[in-house]
Amino acid sequence: MSREQHWDVASYALGVLDEVDSERFEEHLATCWVCAGELESFLPVVDSLAEVNGGHLAVTEQVDKDGALLGRVLTAVGDDRRRVRRRRVLSLAAGVVLIALIGGLALFAGARWVADPRVVAGPSASAPPDGSPAVGPGVPHSATDPTTGVHADLAVDSRPFGTRISFALSKLNGPATCRLVVLTRDGAAEVVSSWRVPPEGYGTAERPEPLRLQSATSSALEDVRAVQVQVIEPDGETSPLVTIPV
Question: How far is CA 33 from the centre of its chain?
């Protein structure tokens, strides 16, 4: 944007503009960072002019052959008008900064929301009956395998596409490759997801945070008998780590 497209910042800072032009400039200032920065640079000059004794300048004007310019300056830097102008300038500048900060925070929050894939329990999530933390919306269930020690918190939610499954696993040691299997009432088994467990595991002393995942199956909720976490051995064989009845 060229300099000619901006309002006269200096005239506004000195208070030379009339009321109509001042309001037009303030509307422009609310959206123009260039003018806002330039206006801020004028504030020390306006403050310095405010310290000038108007009576002394008036005496100077009396001995000046052409006192027209000096008279306009005296009018422009009148104490009362300058104080009002400065308050308005600072308010407008603060408003521009506040709008920018709000916009930046909104973008930052949006980026965090998109970047974080973890399932967060919503208001509709119910806590499991044993007091374990909620893992997602739906009917809560939990189980701990007495042999492996793996603990699972589960929430199943009936959806138009089938069943949504939200779960958290702890006491899950690594390294390992695991998968989630849905066991239906007709005896079928459906693998719905798989993942790798790092050496420090999940919900362990090395990594206290449990593993939180979400998956889905086309089976209706009433057809699901249980959800089972299995470990895949190096030879391809599988064995159950924990089974959660539904």
Answer: 24
